[in-house]
Amino acid sequence: MSDEWVSSLTPSQKDVLLVRALAELRKSRDRLNQTPNNSSKPPSSRSPWESTCTDTETEASAAPTAVDAGATKLPSDATSPAPAPKVSSGKPSAKKAGKQVGAQGFGRTQKLAYTEASPHHPDSCAGCGQSLSPDGAMAYTAWDAIDIAEKLAGQAGLFLQVTRHTLYASTCSCGHVTRAAHHVAPDDPFWDKVALGQWRLVGPRLAGAIVFLALRMRLSRARIREFLIELFDLQLSTGVLDETIREAGRAVAPLEDEMVLDIEQAVLLHVDETPWKEAGRPFWLWAFVASYTTLFFICSRGLEILSNVLTAKFTGNLMSDGYQAYRHLGRRLRCWAHLIRKCQGLIDSTDSRVARTGKGMHEVLCILMEAIYAARAAQAQPIGALTSLHATDIARLQALCERHRDDGNDKLRALAREFLLDWDVILRQVSEPELPLTNNAAEQALRHWVIARRISMGTRSEAGTRAFALLASVIETCRKRSASSWTYIASVIAAARRGLAVPALPAIPVGV
Question: Residue 477 belongs to what domain range?
Answer without folding.
Answer: 187-266+276-309+463-512
